Amino acid sequence: MIRRLALDGWVARLVLLGLLPMGAGAARADVVIGVAVPRSGAYVAVGEQVLRGVRAAARDANAKGGLDGQTIVLDVQDDACDSNKAVAVANHYAAQGVRLVVGHVCSNASLAASDVYAANGTLMITAASVAARLTDRGLPTIFRVCGRDDDQAKLSATVLAERFRDKKIAILNDGTPGSRNLAAATKENLNRIGINETLATAFTASDADDAALADRLKEAGIAVAYYGGDAREMGRLVRISAERGFKPQWFGTSAIATQEFATLAGTASNGVLMTFYLDPRRKPEAAAVVAAFKAEGVEPEGSTIYGYAALQALVAAGTFAHSQDSKRIAATLHTERFDLVLGSVGFDAKGDVTAQGYVLYVWNDGTFTYAK
């Protein structure tokens, strides 16, 4: 293939950095990969983590020859974690002929968009969508490098049973799909073990409702409060509760694996438990990538390394198959193993990654570490 002129390379770099929208310049790119993340709304922090990881992986891959020798250009789109916007993004990629996508972040967005991708033979790989139904449908071009919410709920229920069997437990959700599903699955698993919660309730996340909820939980004598809300909502609830003299053992999910939670909760974040994927920053396979981030003054927290792994998996499979074709790359992901920042992993028939799943963490002094 004839190499682009210098101007084309400059345009490609701007698109790669997300500084130029897709258009005439990007149409001359060797291989375009869509990146669908929330850049507005409640989950911006997680979206930025994923995007940061994807951009770093694209940069590193291009330095080594790209995807099967072709330069990677990113088409970054904002879905705001909204189902309708996610479908619009998926249709945008279909119209542009983009058949490889890293995204989406929120499960509701991934579920909505995946139907469009499946119909168009587009390969979608998510770094953060945990809904079991996403892969349980068996769509051949849908993958994830993160864990599943049913596995997360099982671990949460086990922790509640083993550590807090004799305590009054509340299971909370704010009505959003992810929060509601995790609360329901955790309750189901806990009840199956033989333990009944004292209170299971939904509430509307706001300053006034958070205060009212804190007072209600305090009056009920709740000692342990499980909540599947995002970092912003849980951070606020934990802080407001502490200000009102209610300091239970808080228990969150992977949605609070970002510095934003600790910033909002303040010192009340100390001791908060959380389920999250195995921290890839501790894996030797990720050491060089982690060091590169830190050299730039960036702590690759939360889903950053998973964003890196998602694009890295696409590149590895495409290079192995000597193809940019989405269906051939998907078939390769299903049948081969790859050395990624997550270790040596493959993908099962559903599209779930074979990497280790969830573990328990605890927040202290603005950071989270493995819980003992």
Explain this structure.
With 372 residues, the chain is an alpha/beta fold. It folds into 2 domains: 6-148 and 282-356, Rossmann fold, CATH 3.40.50; 150-277 and 359-370, Response regulator (Rossmann fold). 45% of the residues lie in helices and 17% in strands. The protein contains 13 helices and 14 strands. The strands form 3 sheets. A 7-stranded mixed β-sheet has the order 7-6-8-9-10-13-14, with helices on one face. The protein has a 5-stranded parallel β-sheet with strand order 2-1-3-4-5, with helices on both faces. A two-stranded antiparallel ribbon has the order 11-12. Helix 3 runs parallel beside helix 4 and helix 9 runs parallel beside helix 10 (259-265). The radius of gyration is 21 Å and the shape is elongated. Residues 1-29 have low confidence and may be disordered.
